[in-house]
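Prolyl oligopeptidase family serine peptidase, Sphingobacterium oryzagri. Tokens?
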Amino acid sequence: MKHKFSTVLLSVLAFTGAYAQENKTPLKWQDIPGWSYFRTTATAISPDGKWIAYQAGPTQGDLTLTLKNTENTTAFNYKIGGEGSSVLYNEDGRYLAFLEAPDFKTIKSNEKAKKPSSKKLRVVSLKDTASTVFDKVQQFDFSKENGKWLAIRFESAPGPKNEQAGKGNDLLLYNLDNKQKFNLGNVSDYAFNKSGEFIAYTVDATGKNGNGIFLLNLQTGLTSVIQNDDASFSKINWNKEGTAFSLLKSKENKDYKTPIYTLIGVKNLQAKAPEVHSYSGLQAQQISAGYGISENTVPFWSKDLSTIFFGIAKIEKKEDKKDDSKEKSPDVQVDSLASTAKTKSPIDSAASRKDSTDTKIAATDPKKNAQQKKDLEKPDMIIWNWQDKRLQSSQRVQLESDKRFTILSAWQVAADKFVSLSDSSLKAIYLAPNQLIGYGLDFTPYEYISNLDGQSYADLYIVDVKTGNRKLAIEKLYLNASRTLRFSPTSTHLLYYSDGDFQILDVKTLAKTNISKNIPASFVDMFDDHNVTKPSTGTYGWAEDGRYVLLKDNFDLWKVSFDGKSVTKLTNDWAKQQWTSTSYSNIYPDDENIDLSKDQYFGILNIATKQTGIALLPAKSNKMEVLKMDDVYTSSVKKVKKANTLFYTTQSSTIAPELFISHDNRLKTATKLLSDSNKHVLSAGSKLISYVSDHGDTLQAVLYLPANYEEGKSYPTITYIYERLTDNKNTYSQPAFPGGGFNRAMYTSNGYAVLMPDIKYKMNDPGMSAVACVVPAVKAAVATGIVDEKNVAIHGHSWGGYQTSFLITQTDIFKAAVAGAPLTNMISMYSLIYWNTGSANQSIFESSQGRFTSGYWDNWDAYARNSPIFHIKKVKTPLIILHNDKDGAVDYTQGIEYFNGLRRLNKPVVMLTYNGENHGLRKEVNQKDYAVRMMEYFDHYLKGKDAPDWWAKGIDYIDLSKHLEERAF
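Tokens:
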């Protein structure tokens, strides 16, 4: 199953100070800029779990950071301006640091003037909340485990810079214990090691004076000059243990067109002089001719510090100067050409002689010859060839990523040996934990056909890191079903999925063991209805000891030994209760695998009721315990680093996410730490409806009730569609201007019910499947008495837009419709380009959302049967089409074709095009405009309000500017 659950600790926690008491007043779109909410990405809990910092404020306005004690009501507020900040605690939780921006109006003014907005850094002592503030800060970091130091990198000095100007800025090292400050000048890159004992930094000064890589021992204060050079140094990368680091050096070279990169590795840091190793591969000519160390690589040490891994790429030499005296003179050729001009007029002959003379001069003048070559006009074109593995458009879109492609390589330091691990066919190597072997996927034998039909295969090779030798382990592995490929912690085995079962590959003998064949359950996802053969249900990977893997079927969770001989069901027949695990809560971020000697937490879902909760697999236990299962949406569990304190959030359709804290492993003492202070009612709740599709499948739909709901009354209803939506029944909808125009909270706040049904697809019938599922869902919702049968509309965007545009050709139950970026002609759309990636749509049709089994030439009836454009005469529902002229997902011509067809038939249709926008709306002004127009339109048809002029009679192009100006807010 594909249940998408957020792993963010704090989801959107909405509140607004404008509504102190419960309020059912409908929200207006003009209220959105002032609607206040918690900023989720910057919420942070201290390592000891005693403090939480969260940011809140209006959608457009100034924010406040609140620092709250988790054990009492103590709280402190800080004004942080018109932009959210990252929030960091030092390792022992004694200090908090965050940025303070200018106010919102100043930031917007600076953006228009293309000026930067300087920020301040505030450092707060959690012991007494005393603050220290630094101006014009660009970046900040605490030292790692010791937590004694704060590194602050300041902004560049204002004013123009010349080519010789360095990229470095001042870096301040601030001692949190004694408040001492140490300034390092012209620092361009820096990084603390794990213990916080060392900081490595690079200097990039004007004219490269004093450039180099330096290592400062923060305990002794001694600085080691690792290397000085007239060069640039970058990409410092410490190993996990913090005992060694690597980086790159780039320097101009007279023989090459671009700077040459050198690898630098540093270890034995405690020695009087750290051990430094440099390698370019050019002097010894170890790296293949024409290749060098790539600027796009981030080098890293092997775990045993014997090898440095890095990437190589093509480098181009400067052209050798040719000896002009050895070139053959073209005089004879020119004379012979001149002699053929006997029949020309004297003027023509003179012109020919002049051209011949110029040609002679150019031929003997290399500079002029080169200039003439530059001056030649060349066609501006693209050549598309049927044999191209990737379309020219795809190559063009992916050009930059292709340029950044690097071949993973290894330098064995002691032996001074270079080994290339990947190449143009085996592009990526995934190293095993011991870093002595890796696996790579070769797509090249199947790349051409895969780019046509989307069915992805690859040959899997096991690669020896020491020699670069590779062995074919699995031929033609089908990757659409699953890309689960995980080395065991022991590096001896590889877990993968094939043909409905999980397999274990012995990487030494290449023997394969089917570890799920004897388990009485199916590992094929019963809810995946794409054109994919036996899609996998998924796995949570290896246990830390390498003896077991955790597999999930559609309901239950299994612990299976790597040889398949031991199978333990961890769940108690969840299939009977329709429960399933949806996520694994990784509360130990330092663990690379699942340590079964520790408590482990999982997110769970009741498929039948949409209740969610948390399950615990206790340490050294083989039985999952369900700790919570409620009619709410529950987040993953999080744990602070230095305490046995757990956090999670819950939310529902009526209650914004609330944060809970617990100090016991079974969450029995969980208490609410943060809750929504907003009393504005956006919805009266949600109702789960069961119905039977026209294909005979029992499905579900969620009906969200309007804020002013009264039992016994019927309400105008918006049917919102995509694919399967009911698993998110208990999510809270935050009022906002969305990129797709529709916001559930705004509609339920304004007296609408919102219906979201599940759609189950039959192959070769995507549109007809939508009809078979959506129409019965609407009828079932009407039967509840909540939905006003005469006032039901439909809306969807992208794939939902396609289904919307198709549904109105098959049914008249909808009074109005809005189709955002819809596919309308499946035949023409099939071979058009998905411009955002440059790929053809063919693979999407044959292996993804399209759900067709072939191209239209072998399936004409199905393509035509499911294309809105071929049923256009049957449309009776008024329709708005949103289609932007730069849509890189669904070609703009799809909207144009449908609009012009409906217009030709004199059917009520308006198309909205936001110039320069892609598949969804990014510009805030456009988001506002579309959202408002959509509600105006639905209000007219479902609530009987006056039709807006732009719908009722249209707006002439000459009057459009005035119209838009009058509507701006």
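Residues 1-21, 322-363 have pLDDT under 50 and may be disordered.
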